[in-house]
Amino acid sequence: MNISRIRTTDSGEGEYTDLFEAIAQNIAQKGYSIHHNAMHPALAESLLLNVQNMEETQFKAAGVGRENKYTVNSFVRTDEVCWIMGETDVEQDWLEWAGTLQRFLNRRLFLGLFSFESHFAHYAPGNFYKKHKDAFKGEANRVLSLIVYLNPSWQPEDGGELLIHTDLTTQPEIKVTPGFGTVVLFLSEEFPHEVLRTNRDRYSIAGWFRVNSSCTERVDPAL
Ligand code: OGA
Ligand code: MN
Q1: Which domain holds residue 39?
Q2: pLDDT digits (tens, 9 = 90+) for 20-48
Q3: Which terminus of the chain is more solvent-facing, meaning fewer CB atoms within 10 Å of its CB: N or C?
């Protein structure tokens, strides 16, 4: 693939074109993509300040399942989340970045990504998220998971790694350190994954690109 052939002038991709192209190639070839120090430090720093300055009351214990099946299950996960609605300039910048990636991937891979939802997540020391998938076959909604980590100078003893389970015999588990600016994507239906117990406050954003699975009975996603 000749990266220089990609047009950037009218799309706002600018400095992220090489990253977006690498993501597209990885997703097409193996279904996941991992990049360290990939998010611009100024944006990652602003997002970290944004989440650290949020009131504890804005966070809610994270749940499992959708809509009427949604329950808080502290056996499965113990983190707290806060959905990003674009209420601050930084949140707007984040949504713009994700939107630019969405348009790029739609153009490049014809994915038909239709909407994006994301939340800040805070794992306090001792928190974890057990092995799960972000979407299930047949539900056709969450297509692509995106995680960005906001933790400066993460050390091996801090734990809290993301483990992505693959069906490859060569590399059945991929371990990702949740270091500052690391960007991870994977196909939501394909990869079970888990967050190992963290020994330090761990901040991230998790987001999902969705397709429009509306049918006559149900409008989904609810807009
Ligand atoms: C999730 C998730 C992984 C992480 O929120 O669904 O799997 O590393 N997060 O924060
Ligand atoms: Mn997940």
Answers
A1: 31-210
A2: 999 999 999 999 999 999 999 999 999 99
A3: C
